[in-house]
Amino acid sequence: MAAAPAFDPPLRRLFEALRGGAPAVEPADLDERRAAANATMLLVHPGPEPGVSVEDRAIDVEGGRILVRIRRPEAWAVPGPALFFVHGGGWFQGNLDTAEVECGPMASAVGCVVVSVDYRLAPEHPYPTPLNDVVAAYEWLLANLEELGVDPARIVAGGTSAGGNLVAALCLVLRDRGLPLPCAQVLDVPAVDLTLSSRSMEEVGAEAGLTKAAVGEYAGFYLSGGGDATDPYVSPIFAADLAGLPPAVIVVAEHDPVRDDGERYLARLHDADVPGFAIRVLAHFHGSWIIPVTATNRLLQDLRVATLRRAFDGTLVP
Prior knowledge:
alpha/beta; Rossmann fold; eight-stranded mixed beta sheet; globular
């Protein structure tokens, strides 16, 4: 029998405490599942960022309307930098509030505008709607740079999990359409191979945290409209050519079935002469550093702050 995964002790103690309670029963109704998952995420919400204003703006997209949330430091130089952020949640859950948990206090820590997008969710809105919404929101950002006080040369696109997938696909779409690209892409635990063919799917796909079965379910939601898992805009790792994409910073977790997705994607980017960096966080599962019980929580925030500052001042790549 395989040994239990060696989690960071605070995480292990958290698991043991949770297992000691009543067994969790996942709601059958999808809206109830979303509400429960989102509520769990918000248990670790750090609260309002001091000195940061928050505005939700509705924008029209093909077939409907979505929200973007603009977090802006009250004191900053215009035009300034911006982080365009896309939340995770398996393409079927997550919202603007959970995006704040995943993103962290970047507006105040870095001194940048943060624009988050509340894309429509699968399976009610399968591929390509979530990606189209993200592209439309990015185009909205580009069209409103002056109003928002954003420097077009200092925009970073970042996302977590399914959001990392959507940001990687966004960069491909922007490049293919000849539109301005972000100066960097920051991908946390990205799922970029929806064929589930990474070796880590078998090595760690049945342990605590995200499982292979869950990734398969979420990918099924996303592709329920007939999308092809090998389409590069669905699984960016299958793009024939990754040349010309922005530099990438990728963070993966040791005990995560999509771990190898991020590492394989970095190798593909390097093959295409795109600079990038990846870090594998040992003793953690899928994005578990958002839980503020380990040293990793703040250290990963520090890494993101440093990444954004380097990207914004043009020193990410020497």
